[in-house]
Write a structure and sequence with these properties.
alpha/beta; Arc Repressor Mutant, subunit A; D-Maltodextrin-Binding Protein, domain 2; 3 domains; 8-stranded mixed sheet; two-stranded antiparallel sheet; 12 strands; 43% helix
């Protein structure tokens, strides 16, 4: 990558994010390095490309012009890379993935390993967030592909089904509900509940499932909200309360007898896991190959209680 290419990519990231900090994170650069590249580009054009006011920045009129050309130039770079790679038969580049917590921590690692074995010249970067943030990163093109279990309302985002995942009620072996074969839904109100944080795809689908079964989520006796499945499992193991989690996340604990998992009587809690990507965005050969490979692996990701 030439020096001028670096400046253009840095400018494009800052203009897209309207943040030097977020652009630095996206590009895996330090913030001073990002600031230096922008200063160099402004000196080249002999004009300001950003207005700085307090802790916020915005594009100047000249900045808007440069941003439009940067979009087109970088798109041509990507198309050129793809065309040459297809001619040479070598798949290389970077695939930027985003996944919600359950998928990223329990389902995707095996897929990523298999893909890397097949395409060793491709670097795969995975960031894990809740569903809402994964979609936001997809919308601003910070990632190429996402995998989520929550609903997506953006019409510019394509959803492609992958597999299904079952949610189950989980508690310690000595919990009063441990002897139940299936849990009557109204009994869930009687005991302390450990919840995922707001914005979690798991939390959203649990609310839908319970609501459809006649138990509004607000009626649960929620005493703790946590930001990861591991934290939730730790709280349940510590007898803080019961929870509802993906069956994929507790295979080891159930096998060892540390936790007990049960279904809710009369309520199916199977959720769909989907690939998500922008409808119109150009995809490199590396990204297309990842999608094709990951889709082929979907049948192997199905979880059972």
């Amino acid at each position: 990558m030439s020096f001028s290419d670096t400046r253009l990519r840095v400018f494009h990231a800052v203009a897209k994010q309207l943040s030097f900090t977020r652009a630095a994170e996206e590009l895996y650069l330090t913030q001073p390095a990002v600031t230096f590249q922008i200063r160099q580009l402004e000196e080249h054009f002999n004009t300001r490309l950003f207005d700085r006011h307090h802790n916020r920045i915005s594009l100047t009129e000249a900045g808007h012009v440069v941003y439009g050309y940067a979009e087109r130039i970088l798109e041509l770079y990507r198309e050129t890379d793809k065309a040459i790679n297809e001619m040479t038969g070598v798949t290389r580049g970077v695939v930027k993935l985003g996944a919600s917590t359950t998928i990223g921590e329990y389902l995707l690692p095996g897929v990523m390993k298999g893909y890397y074995d097949r395409f060793p010249n491709v670097q795969v970067r995975l960031t894990i967030h809740n569903t809402r943030l994964v979609i936001r990163k997809l919308e601003d093109a910070t990632i190429d592909v996402g995998m989520v279990e929550g609903p997506v309302k953006n019409k510019n985002i394509v959803l492609t089904p992958c597999t299904e995942d079952e949610l189950v009620v989980v508690f310690p072996p000595n919990h009063p509900l441990a002897d139940e074969g299936e849990i009557p839904i109204q009994r869930l109100k009687e005991f302390p509940f450990v919840s995922r944080e707001e914005g979690s795809g798991t939390r959203d689908v649990i609310a839908d499932f319970l609501g459809n079964g006649g138990l509004p989520y607000e009626q649960l006796n929620t005493i703790l909200e946590l930001g990861s499945t591991e934290a939730v499992k730790g709280a349940v193991e510590g007898h803080v309360g019961f929870s509802i989690v993906s069956s994929a996340t507790i295979r080891k604990e159930v096998k060892l007898g540390i936790l007990v998992a049960r279904r809710v009587k009369g309520v199916s809690m199977m959720r769909k896991i989907n690939f998500v990507y922008q409808k119109q965005k150009f995809r490199s050969k590396a990204v297309e190959e990842f999608l094709n490979y990951a889709k082929d692996q979907c049948p192997n990701l199905a979880t059972e209680l």
